[in-house]
Amino acid sequence: MRSRTIHSTCYLTAAGLLIALFADVRADSNIISVLSRESELTIFRDRVSGVSWLSFLEEEGKITIFAPTNVAIDKFDRNKFDKLSGDDSKKPWLRNFFVQVRIQPKELPNEQSSFAKGAPKLFFSHYKEDPSRFYVNEALVIRKSPGSTESITVYLIDIVPNFSTFENSFPSADEVLQNTDKIAELKGITVLGFRGRVNYFGVRDSFGSATPSTFFIPIGNFPIPALSKNLVLAHVIPGRVLFTTQFGNDHYPTLSSTSEENTQGARIEVSLVNETIADLTGAGDHHDNHFHYPRHYEAQPPAYILLIKSTQKGPASIGSVLSRIILANVPVSNGVIHFINSPLGLITQSVVSYIQDPKHNMNRFNLFTDILKQSPQFMAELNEKKSQTLFVPTNQAVSVLPNDVWTQYKSNKTELFKLLRYHLVPQRTLTEEGLARSGAETATSAAGVPLVLRRVQCTTGCAYNSGTRSELVVECAGVNGSVVSANIAATDGVIHLVDRVLGAPSHSLGWKLQKEESLTTTQVVATKGLWNKVLDQPTSRFTLMAPDNRAWQRVNENYPSEYKRLVQLPSEAHVQAARVMDRHLAEGEFTRDDLTKMSGIKMRNGETIDIERLPGDQMRLKWNGDICNFVRNDLQATNGVIHIIDCVMMTRRDLIASSAPQVNSAGNVLLMIAPLLLAIFAART
């Protein structure tokens, strides 16, 4: 009897354990439990809790959840997220984040319907930098939750995708184009002009095709007859669904490449431009002694804007058109739509009208436009040119200029006119394509000063990056700047946006030295023992004779061991580095014109370097029997000027360690105090 009781108790205990085990498995496998294992998903979990359709989903089989993190929801707008997700038990909008299949990176589908009824499909694409991550619409998968189970897979995503635009419908791009005035979410967006051209040319099929594609729809008014069939077709990237986060630096062919109207061989490619906007509230990275140009608005702009760059390729290539994205990442049944503020590829404005148009200049270069208004003489010159290249400084470029710069130019209209003319190349269009062979092009600015546009390799981050490790740089009147938006086409020329005001230095010699690609070795030597700090003194004026990298390479060939200590070993040769750099720095600012009138220049170490005049207004330096030629002159800074030379003024003796003289000095001191020490010792004994 006792044995039966024991056995019955064991059976009951085992059964209880099994029930508890299955209960634990059931508890661990439901959606809320899986989401609760992630501290970064508490907001999403709380909004999902209690929805009536969760249990149905759990019974249907495998589920994939794309869950935005708390940071992503806060960035999206927490109140908006709560409103969209609803307060009732159904919360239909949240269905967009759930898929009734298991999604894996190795078997990534192109598209998949979400659990939301009537909503556009989710589109997937691989993330180039990491094969374990991928995009779902515009959101990037951060990682897979380790709490995922066999039936429930959770991916953390970095932003909240745009699911709200067509909550209860499933339209194609063509249906959106034909009915924007009837769609509540698109009230106020006018596309009548573009819709009319699509219908006129009979190309609705290009926007209604079932092939997943990327569509651009321009809003507002524009010269309708100028929009040809080929340009209309340029608003479709066929066979690629590209949300803004997926463009990268690539250029994508459009339907215009296969258009029958394309009789001249021209084709239009598009790319995405992420253009940084200056911090106009004064919170940006500015020096204390800089002021901020007066603003005409108080609202802080976004950190950047997105533009679509459409470039005409082929024999008739004349530049690019930039169209600002007004509403991005609108998913439709056959891809994604980006609403833009002007048609792609359509060149309708002159240089003057483009830079004065708030649609283009606001938060980008409107500060320079305001400056132009103070020089009617320069504006008249712009209007009379039939072919020209204008370099337009961005708001950031204008706002970092030193305090006294604009004060001087405001009071001297002649100097302002001269400054503005540094930015204009008359009767020529300098484009990026023109640099394809030579890599550089030299012209004469309207001020009569040489202007050079060249492509350089950038070892650090590129301000303007077309998908390569290079950028365009313009140099004029001693100031060089990076081209941040190139080849903006106008009816009478081309515009380049640059990050500096040409002819107006905005940073110190130290900053200038650090940014010059051909002076990287001089920069390394100058930083030894913090010698370069002298180049940042705002109240001093200096002239730096800076050896270029090729000059330092010859030092390496002649004195390899000494070069290694001087350049490649950061903790060594600080005294020697200062000795060499002092021979290349003069107190006082001497431009090229100044040097041509001098026979010699006294350097910081007390030596005088001879200046030899040559025929044709040329000159060179002579030191210790060596000849130094000037490579470039007059790189202007706020506290001086840099001249790049092709030699290093030093000898092997400069590179010998300074320990020997220090020992000799110490020995001399010991010899001097030795008698005193002996006397003290004798007295004590």
Automatic annotation (TrEMBL):
Q: Which residues cross the membrane?
A: none
Q: Which UniProt keywords apply?
A: Signal
Instruction: Show where the FAS1 domain sits.
Output: 28-344, 352-502, 506-649
Q: Does the keyword Signal apply?
A: yes
- The organism's place on the tree of life at top rank: Eukaryota
The family database entries (Pfam families) matched by this protein are listed as: Fasciclin
Tell me the first and last residues of the signal peptide.
1-27
- Cellular component GO terms, alphabetical: extracellular space
Q: Which InterPro entries match?
A: Adhesion/Biosynth-related, FAS1_dom_sf, FAS1_domain
Q: Does the keyword Oxidoreductase apply?
A: no
This chain belongs to the protein called: FAS1 domain-containing protein
